[in-house]
Amino acid sequence: MTVRESLRGEPQILAMGGGGFTMEPDNPALDDFALSLVRVPEPRILFLPTASGDPTAQITSFYARFARRASATHLSLFRRHGSARSLEDIVLEQDVIYVGGGSMRNLLAIWRAHELDGLLVEAWRRGIVLAGLSAGAMCWFSGGVTRSSGPLEVIGGLGLLPGSFTVHADGEPERLPVWLAAVRSGELPGGWAADDGVGLLFHGTRMTRVVTSRPGTAALRVDLVAGELVRHRIEPELLGAGPGGPGSQPVPDDIRELRELRQAMRRN
Amino acid sequence: MNTGRPPQIVAFGGGGFSMEAGNPLLDDYVLGLAERERPKVCFVPTASGDADHYVVRFYRTFSTRCETSHVSLFRRDRGDGAVEGDLEAHLLRQDVIYVGGGSVVSLLGAWRAHGLDRVLKQAWRRGVVLCGLSAGSLCWFQEAVTAFHGAPTVVRGLGLLPHSNCVHYDGEPERREEYRRFVGDGVTPGYAADDGAALHFVGRDLRRVVSSRPRARAFRVEPRKGEVVEEQLPVSYLGDAQLDLAVA
Predict the structure, then answer these.
(1) Contact at CB, B49 and A114, closer than 8 angstroms
(2) Nearest-CA distance from A179 to chain B in Å?
(3) Facing residues of B121 across strands?
(4) A112 in contact with B at a CB cutoff of 8 Å?
(5) A-contacting residues in B 18-77 (Cβ below 8 Å)
(6) Do the Cβ atoms of B106 and A113 come within 8 Å?
(7) Which one from B48, B134, B211, B212 is the annotated catalytic residue?
(8) In sequence order, what are the residues at sequence separation of 6 or more whose Cβ sits closer than 8 angstroms to the Cβ of residue A101?
(9) Shortest alpha-carbon distance between residue B32 and chain A (Å)
(10) Contact call for B48 and A149, based on CB within 8 A
(11) Is B114 a catalytic site residue?
(12) Rounded Cα distance, A16 and A259, in Å
């Protein structure tokens, strides 16, 4: 076992209703929180822009956010990446895998065509942190609500996390009623709705924290109980507000120092 | 709607507007098959992830002389000028469906998820001319050799053409070896094409090979008496003024 592998913990998923570098170029709070979930000094983060078809602008934003914070790479499934390395080798050496938004239908279909879905499950099992927003967040659950084919519709996910998830609850309010109707009819299991900026953290399949990069936002837990929808509002922790800064679990001084040293060495 | 045309596929080993700027020979050949003054041509850039620059180049090339449109499977939520709503009806109305290059594995995954595999088969049967390069060539065949993500592997295509296909045959020397080895190991016999060569199928049979470059080649690759034979096919260079395709 490598040092990197020994520092991995139990499976973690950070599911964001929206936010991070693609939606909040001036607010790194959620992305810093994602990095704070790993214990290795110089984390490796891999971006999967599959759901949007690997657009250059999204990839550029990813590097702008992470290049100085981590050892950052991306995996394209549409362009030649000039590497003969297997997807398995690329995926399983990461500390964080970050999935962008876009078409959830395309995301899952293309992952399955490349047999990447099974590798991501294996990565999760091994303690590699899975993070993502929008389609890149709903994909880990039993299902969600997508516009992949135009109109809003229910779609199944990979099912690592029990329950359903719907995103952009404040930014795209028309999603919520479609999701609530699906939970009421039993088409989707109960689950969570998250505003833009809100991230749900799961350890294993248990939700342990709800954080946000934006004041005034919230998450919603909804269950079907005896034929009725039962709603429960969850107030998130505001990131960057407390003394610990983003993540509110501060990075230990020695690790921070080592990160800075390595970054300085890379720049030279 | 009956187009009056038989099922046709033009599979480029490489070439056309996205690879041969300034050389319209292969694209012109395909437009000629439409037998319309102003053909309806729809671009399907799925294999590139609907890359914007690719879509723009398509419109630049075709919009002055064709009725142009494109299908985006990644931006259906945003209405970015691509075909919205009933994709099936739109595709079945076309004279030509032009499929761009990229990853054939991603292409097939996305098409199947949106039911486009079924629609394209129906379009082909009705005489909509299907064409494309690279991934847009491989997709129509029973089996295809792709080296897009590392070492060459064989993938299952839509199977409209009961052959195998290998593109960019002149591009990478190991492709040629690998393709012959695959066919020796039981992959469906088939056709290989260089950049600039295009295989024109009518129904399931190869009608002719045309090219936009004088030296572009194409091959039939099949096992004969225990060994894999690569037979070079006659190629009609489209830049040759003497060429009379009517008698070819």
Answers:
(1) no
(2) 17
(3) none
(4) yes
(5) 47-52, 73-74, 76-77
(6) yes
(7) B134
(8) A18, A22, A51, A52, A132, A133, A134, A135, A136
(9) 31
(10) no
(11) no
(12) 26
pLDDT at A88 over 90: yes
Rounded to two decimals, the pTM is: 0.90
Active site annotation includes A185: no
Confidence at B59, pLDDT banded by 50, 70, 90: very high
Q: Is A235 left (phi over 0), alpha (psi -120 to 50) or beta?
A: beta
For residue A5, pLDDT beyond 90:
no
Share of chain A above pLDDT 90, in %: 81
Q: How many CB atoms lie within 10 A of CB A43?
A: 23
Contact A234, A211 (CB under 8 A): no
Bridge partners, A74 (sequence order): A47
Q: Which residue has the tokens 């006659």?
A: B234
Q: Please report which confidence band the pLDDT of residue A65 belongs to, taking 50, 70 and 90 as the band edges.
A: very high
Rounded Cα gap, residues A75 and A70, in angstroms: 16
- The arithmetic mean of pLDDT across residues A36-51, rounded, is 96
Give the CA distances from residue A41 to residues A4, A63, A89, A130, B83, in Å, rounded to whole numbers and listed in that order: 9, 19, 21, 18, 48
Among A75, A76, A103, A167, pick the best mutation site for testing chain B contact (most B Cβ within 10 A).
A103
C-beta separation of A130 from A87 below 8 A: no
Between CA A261 and CA B128 the distance in angstroms is: 61
Q: How far is CA A193 from CA A11, A107, A199, A226, A232, in A?
A: 22, 20, 10, 21, 10
Residues whose CB is less than 8 angstroms from the CB of residue B31 and which lie 6 or more positions away in sequence, other chains included: B39, B41, B65, B66, B96
